[in-house]
Amino acid sequence: MVDVKLDPLRWESVEAGDEAMLEGWLVEEGDHVKAGQVLAKASLVHENIEVQAPHAGIVEQIAVAAGERFAPGYILARLVGF
User: What percent of the chain has pLDDT over 70?
Assistant: First the structure.
């Protein structure tokens, strides 16, 4: 199992307490994805960010719904079977 998170480097220039917004998912639970595939779109301090799959696999769970906010370290989704 692999957890999909926003790259920690994205949070380095953000003030403590700031959160990102998950704009929308491009995949659904059960979808097969490739390493590097864009899974979702998010925004962080007025910057649009693509959330990519760290490995190939199957989207087992989407943990943060579109329209929800999330903080550093949040698990956005989980992949299995890579």
Answer: 99
Residue 27, both tokens? 């995949």
In this structure, are residues 4 and 53 in contact, taking their beta carbons and an 8 Å threshold?
yes
Extended strands (E) in the chain: 2-4, 20-25, 32-33, 38-44, 47-52, 57-62, 69-70, 77-80
Q: Which domain holds residue 27?
A: 2-80
Q: How many CA atoms lie within 13 Å of 68's alpha carbon, on the beta-carbon side?
A: 12
Of 12 and 44, which is predicted with more confidence? 44
CATH number at residue 68: 2.40.50.100
Contact 66, 24 (CB under 8 A): yes
